[in-house]
Design brief:
The protein contains 14 helices and 21 strands. With about 475 residues, it is of the alpha+beta class. Bound molecules: flavin mononucleotide.
């Protein structure tokens, strides 16, 4: 597992990070550069000369599939979680009573994953109390945005019992105050609103890459995002207690803003250009008051930008789907694979299932809508022979196996994301499920589904060499001409 700085070094080593000292502004310029670089498959960038801030800014850290793989040092998150669940059936009881008893001896393994609260960390190297929020790397991405805002600060809320974290847009109001845009359905918002008037938070910039990626992944209760992050890290988070705020956060981050959110003091937030490339609706969200700012002596502050997909948030989804898959399989073993389509900013999910009983594809749709209500607006269910990442194959399955009258499920009046431009009532819309699986007899008026035309194996054996020879000849001619 890399620290933030080790990850940057790794990107430097692999040629995936470029440093520039040209003077650039956080107001529109850096966002435009980052978007264009991401669309054009460019590198991550460190800007050393930023007009509004004394700090270096780094962007597009996760802006390619390759960089997502580098962030986890090549480990597939799904495999890591599966190994953990195999080794510690205590959590799932899937191994039966015998395994369960044996696994009591493995409790030590779980101990390794418990977050450690330490007394100090590099995030407390310096206090930046007088600097003012406008000197920190907040961006304005699009011309009609009302002010600059923090885009890649991870908001931590809670303490030992119920710590959670995620990315929530933070709009600058003045040098001490900002608005916290945690939308309905966000777990951090539920934790924050536990019958209180105010709650302390920490906005953390530059945690280790796994924590940064996990900040974008919704983990439904009763699972803990902190535990899942620890499983992926191979060790518990190293946390410090806020000096002014009652909250825990990573000890080795680059920069932190400790703040107090006044839950009943609401201000108009937005509009901001969002994940699908439209301005978000203006809404009323709570205001936070800065209590303290700490950081390393020479902090490097990550920023991200949103706009028409696929930008960094879309690539982060590729990490998220590998985290969600093994957890979903715990409650729906029929799920074979899952793909959250980056071009859809997580509004469209393709899932393959091994069906055993009629109506099972629909069960999986409803499970996804129940677990993650505001995403997965459109769920397409396919058979296991369809590669969920190959949208050509998915379209084939839709075209071939969908009988619209029978296979489309529309759930009206369902929770949706406020940012979804398709509905005129932000936060309230509908869902579409497309069952593109082959139908079982019970789903097909008692008849067997038509037989697929497949080649005769003997013929295949006889002519394969000839096919390869023809292709070799063709490619040689292609290179010559
Ligand atoms: C770049 C980026 C910006 C985001 N901005 C917001 C935001 O402004 N408000 C929000 O509620 N969610 C936002 N999200 C989504 C949440 O961070 C994400 O759903 C997270 O898993 C929520 O965690 P929670 O449900 O555990 O609170 C953003 C995600 C990314 C990647």
């Amino acid at each position: 597992m890399y620290t933030f700085r080790e990850f940057l070094n790794k990107l430097r080593e692999t040629g995936d990070l470029v440093e520039v000292d040209d003077l650039v502004s956080l107001d529109l310029e850096i966002p435009h550069i980052l978007r264009e670089l991401c669309y054009r498959r460019g590198p991550a960038v460190v800007f050393t000369n930023v007009r509004e801030s004394p700090f270096k800014v780094v962007g597009n850290l996760f802006c390619s599939k390759r960089r997502i793989v580098l962030a986890t040092d090549g480990t597939d998150p799904a495999e890591r979680i599966r190994n953990f669940l195999r080794e510690t059936p205590l959590l799932t009881c899937t191994g039966g009573l015998k395994r369960l008893v044996k696994s009591l001896g493995d409790l030590a393994k779980l101990g390794r994953l418990v977050p450690r609260v330490v007394s100090s960390g590099s995030v407390h190297e310096r206090e930046y109390g007088d600097l003012g929020l406008s000197k920190l790397p907040a961006v304005r991405q699009w011309p009609k945005e009302p002010s600059r805002f923090f885009t890649m600060g991870i908001t931590f809320v809670g303490s030992e019992d119920n710590l959670n974290f995620g990315y929530y847009r933070l709009q600058l109001v003045d040098d001490r105050r900002f608005i916290v845009h945690w939308m309905p359905w966000r777990r951090s918002r539920d934790i924050a609103e536990l019958g209180r008037e105010e709650v302390d938070i920490a906005v953390v910039f530059g945690a280790d890459p796994i924590t940064m990626l996990m900040a974008s992944v919704p983990i439904p209760p009763p699972l803990s995002k902190v535990l899942v992050t620890s499983i992926l890290r191979g060790e518990g988070l190293r946390l410090v207690r806020g000096r002014e705020a009652d909250v825990l956060y990573p000890a080795d981050a680059e920069l932190v803003i400790e703040a107090r959110v006044k839950l009943r003091e609401l201000m108009l937030e937005g509009p901001f250009g969002d994940h699908l490339g439209y301005y978000s609706p203006v809404g009323r969200y709570p205001v936070a008051e800065t209590l303290a700012v700490y950081g390393r002596r020479d902090p490097l502050v990550p920023v991200t930008v949103t706009g028409k997909p696929v930008l960094e948030d879309g690539y982060m989804v590729l990490f998220g789907e590998r985290v969600v898959l093994p957890l979903l399989q715990q409650i729906a073993p029929e799920v074979v694979d899952l793909h959250i389509v980056p071009e859809s900013a997580a509004y469209m999910t393709v899932v393959s299932v091994r069906k055993k009983y009629p109506g099972q594809a629909k069960r999986v749709m409803f499970l996804l809508w129940a677990l993650a209500p505001v995403i997965n607006k459109i769920v397409i269910v396919v058979d296991p022979d369809i590669d969920v990442r190959d949208l050509g194959q998915v379209m084939y399955a839709v075209a071939t196996h969908v009988e619209p009258k029978r296979d489309l499920v529309i759930v009206p009046d369902y929770a949706t994301e406020e940012l979804d431009p398709s509905t005129p009532t932000p936060g309230f819309g509908s869902k579409l499920g497309i069952d593109a699986t082959r139908k079982l007899p019970e789903e097909y008026m008692g008849k067997e589904y038509p037989e697929e035309a497949v080649p005769d194996p003997e013929t295949v054996k006889r002519v394969t060499d000839l096919i390869n020879k023809i292709l070799r000849l063709y490619r040689r001619e292609e290179t010559c001409s």
